[in-house]
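User: Hey, quick favor. My workstation is busy. Could you predict this chain's structure for me?
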Amino acid sequence: MQKITNELYHYFKKKMHSNRGLNEAISKAFRLMMIDHAGYIIYIDEQFCKQLGYMKEELLFHHYRTLHAGVHDGQFYEDMWSTVQKGNIWEGDICTETKMNAIIWYRTKLIPIVDVEDRIVAFAAFRTDINDVKDEDTQLVEALNDDYRKVFQQLMNLIFRVRKNKETGEYRFSLIEGKLTKKLDIHTENTYDQPLDIVFKNTDNLHVIEKFDRVFAGEEKETTFKHQHGSFFLYSLLTPIMENDEVIEVVGSSIDITSLENAEKRIRYLAFHDQLTDLPNRSKLRDDMKELVDQADQFSSFAVLYCDIDRLKHINDTLGDFLGDQVIQMIAKRLNNAIKDNGSLYRFGGDEFVAIIEGTKEEIDRLSEKMLCEIKQPISLQGHEFFVTSSIGISLFGVDSFNAEALMNHASIAVHYCKVNGRNSRLFYTPKMNKMYNDILLMEGEIRKALYHNDFELYYQPQINVHTGEVIGLEALIRWYHKEKGYIPPSEFIPLAEECGLITQIGEWVIRKACNQHVIWIEKGFKPIRIAVNVSAIELQRFDFANKVAVIMEETNMDPAYLELEITENSVMRNTEDCIKTMNALRDMGVSLSIDDFGTGYSSFGYLRKFPINFLKIDQSFVKNVLAESSNAEIIKAMIQLAHTFGLKVVAEGVEEQEVLDLLQKQQCDYYQGYFFSKPIPPDKLEQLLFGSQPVI
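Assistant: No problem, here it is.
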């Protein structure tokens, strides 16, 4: 076994540094490099550095792999290391890459250096330039290397190699390629031996260094992390290159995830913000409330203000969702203007806003009044001017509750109490409001029971031919007589049914009940008569409404020619085109259609020709005051003429006097209904009326 003693090793180191003549003599014969047991360069002669194009400090204490040209495979180096680690001299030809990516072949002797105890402490590499001999091989390798770099340059991501200075622990790039370099404004020709922050800038450097430390230490086979480069977000992967069970280099790749990061930021933002108003949403409110309550103490003073816009649904029904959305946006700005720096505003959903306001009860009272004043300022949109009001329920932290959920619940109860007591006001929560709120909940339960037990009834009001006095139709009207509470008017339970989503079930019940009653009368031998049933806006908006009506027709064996559906003017002004499709489907079945409460909506004359309707019903608010207000008579006259122009029959509602009937006859109105002939009555009394001699008054 050939060995070089420890003294020779120190002799080499000493002489190479102190004896320039010896250094030059050796350099003329061969190139000398010494590497330690781990493969790091601990000495390299000046001529060797010069030939390779490096400064000495660029190679000292870096791994010898820096000079690999990528020609030899892993087995080549494993065999080499296995030989010298056994104490033997290794000889062979090694291809080395210069800093400028040129290729040089060296005939190499790698000699182990041992100490006095025969332990290997380093290796001396003597290299002789044989590039002229290997010229063809060199050209081939350079061509392959050039192709290799060209491939890297065409990759969309960033490819890099990083080596570590064993003495200083610094990380330096030995390669950066890829199309991403252009986007990041990285000039690859100036990147060799540059520090990490050339790519890993604007980020937590300690975090990045920790990632490299763990990979170089062999603690992780690979690792990934996100970081920034200027305004770009990158996602990087680090993979160690192992040799003799030691990490000698790290290769990595980075991809541009800026668009993804921005999208994630936008998604996170949208998760906690309302898209229409850009206000924080219900989820953000929940988180902020929890944090505020958790951090509050007995001296904290703030309130939850639950703001519900009054009758905004009517604006949506009348003007459509687009203008309704503009109203919401305008109200949000007004509320923000009122609150300013005194708290935070959230859109809770639909027509509901919630504000968290800091201050005493007196300060909150003044601010809530300011909010009401801001909201009720006139609104002008697309030629329409109207007013919006609001109801505000207020609960105080430390007075009403110390719990976030309870504070919200109490504010909600207060706003409901406010709505049933006139709206357009603000109320602080008091415990007595709980009873009213419970009554509402109980009423909802009672409606469900009434549906289940079939406790509702239908009354019928006749429709009369103005000129002949003949009964030509009936309007079916729902009635509810509660066993304990007595008569409950529709004005009380219908709005609640709409709010809690029961109106579609009630509407379906009414249509089915009216159809069944019609069939019963036919079976009794009565002459068929048209029955009109009111349809809510919610029902009409349902895509399957026409199909449900068709199913009821088939199940009850009702002739569609005798069914009329009354649709309010406002309900068809929302999603007009969809409503027209539904109405056409109903007309195709043979069902008649009428516009109810005509004259109470906004600018619907332009749509009138589009609606596939048969009848137009003049709202009773015009009819009842027609004798006292001459303008009402002119309006009724215009409505009748307009309807007849479109080929429609006209029904006047609310006729209670002979003089009114005379006026309608004069204006050529077709039909009427009202107390002058009969109030709504149950089926048995209606049978007596239709086949008796006296009207029921």
